[in-house]
Amino acid sequence: MSELDDLRAPIDPQQEAEVLVDKGVPTGGEAFETGSQFKLILQTFLENKLAVVGLGLVFAAVIFCFLGPHFYHTNQVTTTYNINLPPGKGHPLGTDQNGYDVLGRLMVGGQSSLEIGFSVAIIATLFGVAWGAVAGFLGGVVDTVMMRIVDAFLAIPTLLLLIYLASVFHPTLKLLIIVIAGVSWLSPARLVRGEALSLRVRDYVKAVRVMGGGSRRIVARHIVPNAIGTIVVNATFQVADAILVMAVLSYLGLGLPPPAANWGGMLSDGVNYVYAGYWWLIYPAGFAIILTVVAFNLIGDAIRDSLEVRLQRR
Amino acid sequence: MTAYLIRRVFQSIVVLIGVSIIGFILEHLLPGGPAKAMLGNRATPLAIQTFNHANGFDKPLVTQYLVYMGHLLQGNLGYSYKLNQPVSQILAREVPKSVLLVGSALILSVIIAIPVGVFQAVRRNGIVDYAATSISFLLYSMPSFWLGLILIIAFAVNTHIFPAQAPQGSTIGQIIAHPSGLVLPVATLTLVSFASFSRYMRSSAIEALAQDWIRTAKAKGLSQRAILFKHMLRNALIPIATLVGLSLPSLITAGVVVESVFNFPGTGLDFVTAATTEDFALLLGIIILVGVLTVVGNLLADIAYAVLDPRVRYK
Q1: Domain B88-308, CATH among 3.60.20.10, 1.20.1600.10, 1.10.3720.10, 3.30.70.580
Q2: What's the pLDDT score for residue A250?
Q3: In chain B, domain spans
Q4: What is the pTM of this model?
């Protein structure tokens, strides 16, 4: 009964809220960290074996690319005469047309692929979320104008826009990240706008408004936290898509100029030797891309599933 | 229905204006503006100035946009100085070939994806379902150019079943004359779009199977076949109409990549070549064309949806 006593004799509103949170009693719209919901999501996520495989693959890729070069020393700077050696002693995956060790190049190349994937996902998600939340929350003319801009950009395939921009501005790593992010923010913007449209008419948002909460507070503390599931799922897919798009750009010769290495660029170089049967220039980099992209897609799918489970159990 | 149509057409026109504004901005994004697109990287300042004055590029931006829009409406997409031809003339020659490639892949992938998706939905969580899901997941995560390379290695290098290069020719007739060269590019594109179509078809069929009318049909004692083909399939196919319209941009993207892998002489290859030779007029012309196609495709898909599913009209 002490629980009820506590409820009846609050000392001040802030403390009351803390007491309620400690008890795990729902306290309304404000998104407090209770841990329980997160635990539930984590639990369902970990129950999904494919998700764990995906997470493991991502960890493996990060360790392989960023820690690998510290243990497996290769020369990725100066060219040698040991070109196009098949896999064998000293070169587990052979060498490429510049005499670079393919295994070592996979590690170095993976670094830029992963960096681009993560950076693009973060930038595009932040910008898209802000755009979508503002459009959906404000509604009316602002929403119409903002969303027609998104529609117009969506009508032009990302890759075409990227190829155009890459041929206009000869890309550096930073510029490429900004350009890919610049064409990737559309889907989070649309998703969050949809969520915001449905969330802004919910009772708890109305309640905040009645209590005098400003628009900024509503968007930042209520709309975005409640749409976070959708956002995270989309961000995961963004990483996968950015890695794929980067690979295609490099393959078309519009990626980063040498000596920078990335998986798509390795494939682009290997294409010239398809007829010579130099499979070690085609398969390793291809499998590296596929494994990483599959991993991120698996994680995204699993998070989406566990969020749905959360909704079902509610 | 009429109100819905009018609203939807109006929306599309607004988006089309947006596309034209993006095209306009992209043109002016070039360091040096449209003059550089026409005259190339090594144009002298005097040449640029003369060009700007002669073509009205020294007027206010709004005036310039209206002129640009007027040209677009007349089908004037600019002039490729690299190929010394109007862009519209180049596109008129190249687009039918790309339509042949993308169109046949689209039809094939829908024809394959429908039965596979339905079978997966009916035998859910069976071996075939898991296998098909895994395959489409893998295809979905694969760079399309890599898939093309693997097919080349398997069918053109290791075994000489199909040629590695698409048939060459400037007309659609010359290309159809050598169908064996079309097999690998069409197969690559089909596999890529099959990956997403079968996933959608599966979930669409699962959703349709859970509806009340299916239970009613079962209760009436209809055969499994009648339920599947008369009741389930017709409803499950509706989302596919939308999906085909929505997947146009990704199909065109994949088409660009596949065309450059197989050296297929179409719009996509032109686009990639134009990017490396900095033929900005052709690049922008193709971007505008694809943008218009996408908007029109989405509009048609929505209209088809409204025709097929009366519930949409009354929303």
Answers
A1: 1.10.3720.10
A2: 85
A3: 2-86, 88-308
A4: 0.81
